[in-house]
Input
Amino acid sequence: MFVLCTWGGRNVTVDEKLNDHAFFATGQHYALFDELRASSPVHWTTSPDQRGYWSIFRHADVKTILNEPALFSSEREGVAPVVDDEMAAIVDEAWGLGQNIAFIDPPRHAPIRKVMAEPFLPNALASSEERTRKLIAGIFDDIPANGEIDLVSDLAVRIPMAVICDLLELPEADWEDMLDWGKMAIGGTDPEYQRGTAAETISFGFRKLFEYGMRRSSERRGCPMSDPLSLLANARVNGEPLTPKLVAYNTVQFILAGFETTRNAFSGGVLALLEHPTQLALLREDPKRLRLAAEEIVRWSDPVISLMRVATADTELGGTRIREGERVMLWFPSANRDPDVFERPYDFDITRHPNLHLGFGAGPHFCLGGPLAKMEIRLALEQLFERYDGIEITGEVERVQSNFVGGLKHLPVRLKPHVMSSA
Ligand code: HEM
Output
């Protein structure tokens, strides 16, 4: 039986809300998750494709599923929350089931991950920190003198784009195209980004990115360079070269994972600091706090809202029977506010330690770019504080309509530079 609530002037079921991308732009999902985590932590949810799925709300259950890739597959139907027929029809070609690292199950997953992981390990990143700092400073240099910007499109989107393109050695001339395709591929459920239906938009964005990935990665074949794309294009796994398609799908994964999530974390983090001035003051007072703050920003901003898995055998979770072939939807904003794990989960606390959030996932698919993303957030905040005294919100804050990868779409602000003392 469904619980009825009022939303948009009419009665809707809880399940309709969970399937409604617009609902997630309201920020009201946190209250709904609190209710469901307590009353129905493994919740059968009806869906437009009539198949239904299990919604998973507790931190412990989400973690269990992420740590059991043989029992909960990423490859069968993918990890994006696809619960309608039109989306299901495009998912394989768009994402590359069995080709994109995030959509490959063990045992094939580990050796491919090994090839991709090396340039993202903390040691490799530490040596590139100064270069990344300069790159990010370059983005801040472009801010107009009056300081009036949309913090999302002018900073939050451009910073990770600059960093991932520098790492992958992709030209700046390609940024605008990639940003457009990325918005369509990941944010195609939001009317602002749509060209046709959501599925048509997502399919178009991914197709363009895939063609781009094919072109750029084929140029690297046979080149003895050490950037992640060249390493991937020239790798051998079990003695065999990787197919051009697999290399292209993972080029797309690097690009999209590199900027679509980090933009949400950074912009969400700035908004959180503006809404919690005591925390902002703490951070300005001692920038050494930036490392812990970056972690809390990821917990708080929930760049990934949900991920899906498919059960490969009958099993049980929290006393609920899950059958082979059924889908489970992992709701990260719920896991990351679970009071069983987080003391005062609704306090944004930049000193929180330990911080056991699942924002970067867990288990074998744990985010490859986590250390890079946290470094970007830290360096970008460092620039913001060094250059500006205050930030004022000047217009409407808008969130992307998505229950998959979500966050801010617009954050209009005025940045106020430090006043130079004449003494
Ligand atoms: C704040 C920013 C980020 C967040 C919140 C985030 C989140 C995630 C999550 C939750 C997963 C797990 C997916 C799953 O279990 O199905 C993941 C995987 C992944 N992420 Fe990130 N990510 C971020 C930034 C990045 C960056 C900067 C990169 C750089 C390329 C990256 C690359 C990847 C890759 C390649 C995977 C797939 C790993 C695998 O399947 O083994 N991510 N990310």
About this structure: The chain has one domain: 4-417. Residues 4-417 form a domain with the Cytochrome p450 fold (CATH 1.10.630.10). The pocket of protoporphyrin IX containing FE is lined by residues 66, 74, 79, 101-102, 113, 253-254, 257-258, 261-262, 265, 298, 303-304, 307, 359-361, 365, 367-369, 372-373 (CB under 6 Å).
